[in-house]
């Protein structure tokens, strides 16, 4: 710890958050706890790579990386944590190594599994925020239900072609199903649909920004859906309101009511 690199690491960890401390709206007590924050990233594709990179260098203390996939040569154009040497390795292992190089004091748990309804509760429990880096519709529905029940924020995102979306869901605001319902839509498959590499950097960095703002106490805006369209150079937000007919919000309210009786 106190070797050449150890001393250097202690210095750089303080430097990592210095520019955050100078920002308005930051709560210093929350900033001091950033090094203890626990964030789960589900999916280590382009979005997960970009968000993990920024969360690590900004001083988030722990990341749990969940993905059963291995690195493919076609990933290298947008998954910035992977070098050509990583091709064929488990994504979570290669990402853990790269993140530890960037931020040596970070704690990273690599989980080489795909998320299922069965393993989800054990894998996500105990995290302050969940980041959705998936390209499949069904797991988002499972994550949304679990998060609403446990009061954990989730930053959802999707990216395909030239277009991306981000929606941070907080316990006090509308959930993912308030907007999209619970019918699993089509998966966003960039293997067949194509994708502009930097798009996932933009969208993943936006996810990391929402996570960091929340963790350091910057007031969050509930129900904001970000839409980015790189083909037509458009960037806009849409306000999402709680849906009184949302099955997920209804069932979590009923569960709350039952426990308060
Ligand atoms: Zn809802």
Describe the protein in words.
The chain has helices spanning 4-21, 28-32, 46-57, 91-102, 120-124, 137-150, 176-180, 190-193, 197-215, 247-260, and strands at residues 38-42, 62-66, 107-111, 129-132, 154-160, 163-169, 224-229, 234-239. It is α/β, with parallel strands linked by helices and 261 residues long. The chain has a single domain (23-260), classed as Rossmann fold. The protein has an eight-stranded mixed β-sheet, sandwiched between helices. Helix 3 (46-57) runs parallel beside helix 4 (91-102), helix 3 (46-57) crosses helix 9 and helix 6 (137-150) runs parallel beside helix 10. It binds zinc ion.
Assign the CATH class: Alpha Beta
Biggest sheet record: 8 strands, mixed
Number of helices: 10
**What hetero molecules are bound to the protein chains?**
zinc ion
- State the helicity in percent bands: 40-55%
Total beta strands: 8
Mean pLDDT figure: 91
**The CATH fourth-level homologous superfamily:** NAD(P)-binding Rossmann-like Domain
State the CATH architecture. Answer: 3-Layer(aba) Sandwich
**Arrangement of strands in the largest sheet:** 3-2-1-4-5-6-7-8
Strand content: 15-25%
**What is the end-to-end distance?**
52 Å
Residue stretches low in confidence (pLDDT < 50, at least 5 long) are none
CATH topology: Rossmann fold
Structural class: alpha/beta
For the CA atoms, what is the radius of gyration?
18 Å
**Count of the domains:** 1
- SSE string: HHEHEHEHEHEEHHHEEH
């Amino acid at each position: 710890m106190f070797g050449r690199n150890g001393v250097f690491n202690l210095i750089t960890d303080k430097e990592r958050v210095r520019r955050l401390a100078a920002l308005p709206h930051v709560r210093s007590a929350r900033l001091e706890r950033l090094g203890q924050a626990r964030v789960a990233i589900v999916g280590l594709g382009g979005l997960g790579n970009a968000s993990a990179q920024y969360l690590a260098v900004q001083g988030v203390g722990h990341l749990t990386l969940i993905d059963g996939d291995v690195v493919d040569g076609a990933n290298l154009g947008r998954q910035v944590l992977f070098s050509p040497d990583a091709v064929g390795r488990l994504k979570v292992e290669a990402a853990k190594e790269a993140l530890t190089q960037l931020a040596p004091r970070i704690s990273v748990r690599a989980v080489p599994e795909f998320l299922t309804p069965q393993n989800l509760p054990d894998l996500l429990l105990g995290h302050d925020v969940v980041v959705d880096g998936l390209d499949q519709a069904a797991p988002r529905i499972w994550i949304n239900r679990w998060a609403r029940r446990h009061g954990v924020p989730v930053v959802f995102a999707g990216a395909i072609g030239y277009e991306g979306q981000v929606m941070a869901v907080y316990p006090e605001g509308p959930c993912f199903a308030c907007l999209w319902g619970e019918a699993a839509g089509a998966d966003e498959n960039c293997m067949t649909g194509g994708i502009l590499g930097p798009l996932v950097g933009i969208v993943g960095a936006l996810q990391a920004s929402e996570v960091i703002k929340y963790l350091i106490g910057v007031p969050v805006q509930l129900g904001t859906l970000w839409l980015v369209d790189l083909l037509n150079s458009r960037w806009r937000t849409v306000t999402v309101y709680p849906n009184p007919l949302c099955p997920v919000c209804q069932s979590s309210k009923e569960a709350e009511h039952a426990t308060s009786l």
